[in-house]
Fold this sequence. Notes:
The chain is mostly beta strands. It has a single domain (4-17, 34-126), classed as TonB (TolA/TonB C-terminal domain, 2-Layer Sandwich). It has two helices and nine strands; from the N terminus they run βαβββββαβββ. The strands form two sheets. Strands 1, 2, 3, 5, 6, 8 and 9 form a seven-stranded mixed sheet that branches. A two-stranded antiparallel sheet has the order 4-7. 27% of the residues are buried.
Amino acid sequence: MAPVCLLLAVISFDAPVYSAQAEKDAPKSEPEEAIYDVGPGITPPRVIHQVSPQYLGSRGIRVVGSVVIALVVTSQGFPKDPQVVKSLEKDVDKSAVDAVKQWRFDPAKKDGKAVAVRTALEIDFHSL
């Protein structure tokens, strides 16, 4: 039986519907911008488009556990520099990172303006 993956982001999920136009508008080369930590005075980013990892255990091993990925969410709502900070298994980690690279966010806000922030996502894998 194939493992089932449940995704749990450390940030909130109530957001407007994802637009395919955002995919086309992804910056080709991002200018450097100030990066903040989520805290007082900064509204965290919200997931508006989420892609599930495509891990199919080639060795028939059921995967149970979670992968934690640290990343920057840019002021345009794109994930940047995702890094695994809690590993499960190399192939599982890669599938989680590949999925997160496709996520889109309503960016964090500071004083009503979109800003880049550091955050982390926890992606849980459960077997049926």
